[in-house]
From TrEMBL:
Domain of life: Bacteria
Gene3D superfamilies: MFS general substrate transporter like domains
Transmembrane segments: 20-39, 59-79, 86-105, 111-131, 151-171, 191-214, 253-271, 291-312, 324-342, 348-372, 384-407, 419-442
Keyword Transmembrane: yes
SUPFAM superfamilies: MFS general substrate transporter
Signal peptide: none
Pfam families in the record: MFS_1
UniProt KW keywords: Membrane, Transmembrane, Transmembrane helix
UniProt xrefs under InterPro entries: MFS, MFS_dom, MFS_trans_sf, Proton-linked_MCT
Subcellular location: Cell membrane
Name of the protein this chain belongs to: MFS transporter
Chief location category: membrane
Lineage: Bacteria, Bacillati, Actinomycetota, Actinomycetes, Pseudonocardiales
Molecular function (Gene Ontology), one example: transmembrane transporter activity
Length: 458
């Protein structure tokens, strides 16, 4: 198939190309598609305008994460074959097109179009855009894979840092009004639809920069002074390569699937409902949270999510992937317990605990490609990563479902404040403990799954 300008052969870097030009290309895509983490800003206006429950308003986000994992798994091998420029362009078309379909859905009050557009079509853009720069950056930075994947995936976590205040200001300007306690009191016709339209067009322009800038290294390229033998001696669990087909047959793959799934479930539930959750927690206290303060909380979580991806994943290059996941899962469970025990007594404890949990959540995403490289080599790490992201699909349904369904049920039972979320929090603690055990079970990959070397074939 002739891809022309998008073909992989057109993006091979010439001699002397600086590898530090590639991270900005990755960030232009990930900062855009990372808008998904700001979905909670749209939830209250949609619930008011279309008379939706909390669980219903979560559907576009949930489907988007499901489609992210499925499209990453289905198209992972094609992304490796066609190259990052093709993948970024397809991501642009799907993600931005999803906003336009969602705008039409709100304008016509057909909520299924919002779900299908933002969640379905947009979710495909999320998946392809998410994996497109990861394997490319690992190839450019074989000496620092944790840092490289942290750079790429940091943008996805930081996308909401930009989108949250931008989206909030836009909704306010277009006709969404709030009470002093952050409850939506009115939504003018066209306000949400116009916000979706502007998002789709603006992100299309932003993502185009990545499409134009991205490059792949020439065959056999290595950074100056890089010695893969020394790297393997200190960091990697195995020096062999494993194909994507064989990787899914190993217990290591499924242990990491559980680790990723439960780490994501524990974080994504909070993130998807961040704005209304902090409002519920402190609404009946002496210092209730306003809409702008709730948006600020979402931004703080996004900042923690973003910085955790680069800071903790870079740390994993020094202390190892298994040790860093012990931190994510073990300390994450303790922090959830702190939130459950403190409740709404001390607001700063709630905020700081949530920020640390979200830093581990984001770091889990950033570190997992390097963990896969350690276990399975670089041969088809992008395709393996895509298959592993089906864990994100499950978590994308599970996390919001647990938080929203239990909160809705508790609200119907007449409960309020932290009581809306206590049961969910203890469930998250249990899931993190299971993930901790799964990480402990990760061992080197059996040699029977390794690809044969040229000498072995001969």
């Amino acid at each position: 198939m002739a891809l022309g300008f998008l073909d992989r052969s057109r993006v091979v870097a010439p001699a002397g190309w600086s590898r530090w030009l590639v991270p900005p290309a990755a960030l232009s895509v990930h900062l855009a598609i990372g808008q998904a983490y700001a979905w909670s800003v749209f939830k209250p206006p949609l619930e008011k305008y279309l008379s939706l429950s909390g669980a219903q308003s979560a559907l576009p986000f949930q489907l988007g994460i499901v489609m992210l994992g499925l499209s990453a798994a289905l198209f992972g091998t094609r992304v490796e074959r066609n190259g990052p420029r093709w993948a970024m362009f397809v991501s642009l078309c799907c993600f931005c097109g999803g906003f336009l379909v969602a705008a039409l859905g709100v304008l016509t009050k057909q909520y299924w179009l919002v779900v299908l557009g933002y969640g379905g079509l947009g979710g495909v853009g999320l998946g392809i855009g998410y994996i497109s720069p990861v394997s490319t950056l690992i190839k450019w930075f074989p000496d620092r894979p944790g840092m490289a994947t942290g750079i790429a995936i940091m943008g996805f976590g930081g996308g909401a840092l930009i989108a949250t205040p931008w989206s909030t200001a836009m909704l306010d300007a277009f006709g969404v009004t709030y009470s002093n306690t952050g409850v939506v009191t009115g939504v003018e016709d066209g306000a949400i639809a116009l916000a979706f339209l502007v998002h789709g067009l603006a992100y299309a322009v932003f993502m185009t920069m990545g499409v134009l800038l991205v490059r792949v290294p020439a065959d056999g390229w290595r950074p100056a002074g890089y010695n893969p033998v020394n790297d393997r001696a200190h960091v990697l669990i195995t020096t062999a390569n494993v194909s994507a087909k064989n990787a899914v047959k190993t217990p290591q793959f499924w242990c990491l699937w559980v680790v990723l799934c439960f780490n994501v479930t524990a974080g994504i539930g909070i993130l998807e409902k961040a704005a209304p959750m902090i409002g519920d927690f402190f609404r009946q206290t002496a210092t209730p949270v306003t809409a702008s303060a709730a948006a600020g909380f979402v931004a703080l979580l996004s900042l923690a999510n973003m910085l955790g991806r680069i800071a903790w994943s870079s740390t994993s290059d020094l202390i190892g992937r298994k040790n860093i996941y012990r931190l994510y899962l073990g300390l994450g469970a303790v922090l959830y317990l702190v939130i459950a025990l403190v409740g709404n007594d001390v607001k700063i404890v709630f905020i700081l605990s949530a920020m640390l949990i979200l830093s581990f959540y984001g770091a889990g995403f950033a570190t997992i490609p390097a963990y896969l490289k350690d276990l399975f080599g670089t041969y088809q790490v992008g395709a393996i990563h895509g298959r592993l992201l089906t864990a994100w699909s499950v978590a994308g349904v599970l996390g919001p479902l647990i938080i929203n369904a239990i909160a809705d049920a508790q609200k119907s039972a007449g409960k309020s404040g932290p009581a809306l979320y206590t049961t969910s929090i203890y469930i998250m603690i249990g899931l993190l403990v299971v993930g901790f055990v799964a990480n402990e079970l990760v061992k080197p990959v059996d040699a029977k799954f390794h690809e044969k070397t040229a000498a072995e074939v001969a």
